[in-house]
TrEMBL record:
<feature type="transmembrane region" description="Helical">
    <location>
        <begin position="179"/>
        <end position="198"/>
    </location>
</feature>
<feature type="transmembrane region" description="Helical">
    <location>
        <begin position="152"/>
        <end position="173"/>
    </location>
</feature>
<feature type="transmembrane region" description="Helical">
    <location>
        <begin position="350"/>
        <end position="372"/>
    </location>
</feature>
<feature type="transmembrane region" description="Helical">
    <location>
        <begin position="254"/>
        <end position="272"/>
    </location>
</feature>
<feature type="transmembrane region" description="Helical">
    <location>
        <begin position="99"/>
        <end position="119"/>
    </location>
</feature>
<dbReference type="InterPro" id="IPR047928">
    <property type="entry name" value="Perm_prefix_1"/>
</dbReference>
<keyword id="KW-1133">Transmembrane helix</keyword>
<feature type="transmembrane region" description="Helical">
    <location>
        <begin position="317"/>
        <end position="338"/>
    </location>
</feature>
<feature type="transmembrane region" description="Helical">
    <location>
        <begin position="384"/>
        <end position="405"/>
    </location>
</feature>
<feature type="transmembrane region" description="Helical">
    <location>
        <begin position="125"/>
        <end position="143"/>
    </location>
</feature>
<feature type="transmembrane region" description="Helical">
    <location>
        <begin position="218"/>
        <end position="242"/>
    </location>
</feature>
<feature type="transmembrane region" description="Helical">
    <location>
        <begin position="284"/>
        <end position="305"/>
    </location>
</feature>
<keyword id="KW-0472">Membrane</keyword>
<keyword id="KW-0812">Transmembrane</keyword>
<feature type="transmembrane region" description="Helical">
    <location>
        <begin position="425"/>
        <end position="443"/>
    </location>
</feature>
<protein>
    <recommendedName>
        <fullName>DUF4153 domain-containing protein</fullName>
    </recommendedName>
</protein>
């Protein structure tokens, strides 16, 4: 299909999935139906735009959603074709059943973490803490999307293999490979969670972009819950302290083990139920933090370039640079996922292009520093992993910058830049799996 038509379908899909009256598990089926309608109409001689607009109009079950979409995008032909008189939605009513399921999974995650704190040694717990939380988050998303047995097996089987590897590998206590494996296992699990989120359709570009959007929105809601919960707990602890009591033990052994994992599951429910709210927040967040991040990266680049011999740059600084580059990538992904794919290039797109350019400079300096340290002091598991991650980021950012430049100059559709992001994302999960499974035995589990 034409790239412009794909962008319109992506926008339609995003709008439909944000509508509370339509279950997320039904969106893929509805998109297939829409595409079939478009193909049939194109076969009759209509062009892409005409076929798309008529197909949306024929989606009888979506009349109310289409009317809302037309009101929000009144500058398009949607208004003439689908803005017809009709009653507004009556609302969903109470959703007690879903709330009960969410609370059940949240409490289950808290119980799992509490048992882990009681039964597992500290080093083992560090390796398995994500295994105690993400299955419950995946359980809620799987229940929400009514995933089939094949999808469950496709996710559970590699997760079990990963857990056995972390449990059976003879890691040196506190060694580099143990820490590296503990840091990369959550990346693999998050990739598997993405398979659950898209209902097993992991090859779907719109589905993967939905998961990117979900990840960003989840981070927003977790941060909001953490801030609100922190204020509430702080006020409670202060009140108890003034009354002569002490909540420190209860806080560490009971409140936090249940509150933190529970907040993740509840945040996922809020994302699913209140997506339109974050949809309004996302553009604001990206417009605020993109220029601030550019300033920060420019400052880092100046500091690094003025540091003299890059081989003398502290290892901790290089690790921090990797973390910052990953955050920059997350900001870029979230910005792209929150953008209207049909809107023309604007100031925010040019700022993102600048962000990618400055990030490439920082990444190139970091790569040079790492190569210099390896040449002077020899290789180590940490250096090899850091070097590999920076090479992955370099490829990702170079291609993203090239496609972004083409879009800003009007030579490429936005869909090209968007598809590159979701196409490349699985590479990180495969890389993380390789780091966990292959690196430790190769270097002797040091």
């Amino acid at each position: 299909m034409d790239a412009g038509l794909e962008a319109q379908i992506d926008q339609w899909r995003g709008y439909v999935r944000r509508h509370r009256a339509i279950a997320a598990s039904d969106v893929d089926e509805m998109e297939d139906h829409l595409r079939g309608q478009v193909d049939d109409l194109r076969a009759t001689g209509l062009d892409d735009d005409e076929a798309f607009l008529v197909a949306v109009r024929r989606m009888g079950a979506l009349d109310a959603v289409s009317r809302e979409f037309a009101r929000e995008h009144s500058e398009r032909l949607w208004k003439q074709l689908v803005l017809v008189p009709g009653a507004d939605d009556a609302g969903d009513g109470p959703r007690w059943r879903e709330l009960a399921v969410v609370l059940g999974f949240a409490v289950g995650a808290g119980v799992a973490v509490r048992l882990g704190l009681t039964l597992l040694p500290e080093d083992v717990l560090a390796r398995f803490v994500t295994f105690l939380v993400l299955p419950f988050l995946g359980g809620y998303l799987g229940w929400k999307r009514r995933i089939g047995v094949r999808t469950v097996l496709a996710v559970v089987a590699p997760a079990v293999v990963l857990a056995l590897v972390l449990a059976l590998y003879p890691f040196a206590a506190g060694g580099s490979t143990e820490v590296i494996a503990a840091l990369h296992a959550p990346v693999v699990l998050w990739g598997l969670l993405g398979v659950v989120y898209v209902g097993g359709r992991w090859r779907s570009h719109p589905g993967r972009m939905d998961f990117v959007r979900f990840t960003g929105e989840l981070a927003v809601y977790v941060a909001l819950l953490a801030l609100g919960g922190g204020v509430l707990v702080g006020l409670t602890a202060a009140t108890v302290s003034l009354a002569g009591g002490d909540l420190e033990t209860v806080m560490g052994e009971w409140i936090m083990p249940f509150a933190v994992p529970g907040a993740v599951v509840v945040a996922a429910w809020l994302v699913e139920a209140k997506q339109a709210v974050v949809e309004n927040i996302a553009p604001v967040l990206t417009r605020v933090f993109t220029p601030l991040t550019i300033v920060m990266l420019v400052g880092l680049a100046v500091v690094l370039l003025g540091a003299g011999d890059l081989a003398d740059v502290e290892r901790e600084l290089l690790i921090l640079l990797d973390a910052i580059l990953v955050l920059v990538l997350c900001l870029l992904l979230y910005s792209i996922s929150a953008r209207d794919p049909l809107a023309p290039p604007g100031v925010s797109d040019r700022l993102q292009l600048v962000l990618v350019g400055v990030a490439l400079v920082v990444d190139a300096v970091a790569l040079t520093a790492m190569a210099s340290r390896i040449a002077e002091f020899g290789a180590s598991p940490n250096k090899v992993v850091a070097l590999g991650l920076n090479l992955l980021l370099l490829v990702h950012l170079v291609r993203a910058g090239w496609l972004g430049l083409g879009f800003v100059r009007g030579r490429r559709p936005f869909d090209d830049a968007s598809r590159w992001q979701t196409t490349y994302l699985p590479v990180y999960a495969v890389w993380a799996a390789g780091v966990v499974l292959v690196l430790p035995p190769v270097v002797g589990f040091v």
